[in-house]
Every structure is written in C-alpha cells, then in structure tokens.
Amino acid sequence: MPAQKGVGSKFGPFIFEFQRWGVEPADFLDALDQFLGTLPPGPQCATEVRNPAILGSRYLNILRTHHVFHVYNHWTAMPPLSDQHRLLEQTFTAPMSLSGSSRRWDLPMRKPSNDTHPTAGSSPHNLA
C-alpha cells in the first residue's frame, strides 16, 4: 500500500467514521459487515460510529470477525466512554484501543436531540 510505504512504522489504522442519521441500525450493521468483509488484509482499521443504537453484541461480533477496532468517541449523541465499553461487553476488539473527541473541550456539551437533522440544537461552536 503506497501510504504505508511512505510513512513506514508511523502508519496508523484507517478510521471509518459513520454519522448517526440516514440508516436504521440493523441495516447499517448488515452493510458494515459486508463492507468490512471487502477490505484487503493489511492495515488495521477502526470504526467510529455516532449512533448509540448501534453499540451492542451484534456490532461487537462484526468488529471481532473482521479484527476491527471500535473508536471510543466523545461525541454529543454518544454515551460516556465507560457506557460505550459496557455496551461492548467490556471487551476490546483489537490489541489496542482508540478514542477520539469531535468537540471542543472548552465548551459545554449540548443535550442529545431526538431530531435527526445533523445541526438540530447546535450552535456554530459545538457542531460535531
């Protein structure tokens, strides 16, 4: 892979980020399983999901099957990191873990909205 050759040992996992709206969780999990099955062997991959309804045993099993990381993320609509880990049966799916933040730490979190529009209830300072 050209990118891996270019940066050598500093090459990290590919992170596939998925938004929280636009597809039902069961349909998303079917598509995720199929997509991950098409990836070539080699570089490590990770998924960052932003829909808490996806977290659970089926998602965990898909990640295990394909040797993919879950990115523990601090995103507005996601549960706290400890709850994400509990929903994943307190199990890591790869030999390392990843975490990420998609918000500015100096601003308060807004309450999650049931509205499916990506900017519902957001201000320009805390769009995720």
Which key terms come to mind for this protein?
128 residues, alpha/beta, 4-stranded parallel beta sheet, 16% strand
How many strands appear in the DSSP assignment? 4
Structural class: alpha/beta
| Sheet with the most strands, sense and barrel status | 4 strands, parallel
Alpha plus pi helix count: 4
Our Rg estimate from Cα atoms comes to: 15 Å
SSE string, helices as H and strands as E: HEHEHEHE
Strand content: 15-25%
- Helix fraction? 25-40%
Q: Residue-averaged pLDDT, rounded?
A: 77
What does this structure look like?
The protein has 128 residues and is of the alpha/beta class. It has helices at residues 2-7, 25-38, 57-66, 81-87; strands at residues 14-18, 45-49, 69-74, 98-101. β1 (14-18), α2 (25-38) and β2 (45-49) form a beta-alpha-beta unit. It starts with a helix and ends in a 27-residue tail after the last strand. The chain has one domain (10-101). A 4-stranded parallel beta sheet has the order 1-2-3-4, covered by helices on one side. α2 packs parallel to α3 (57-66).
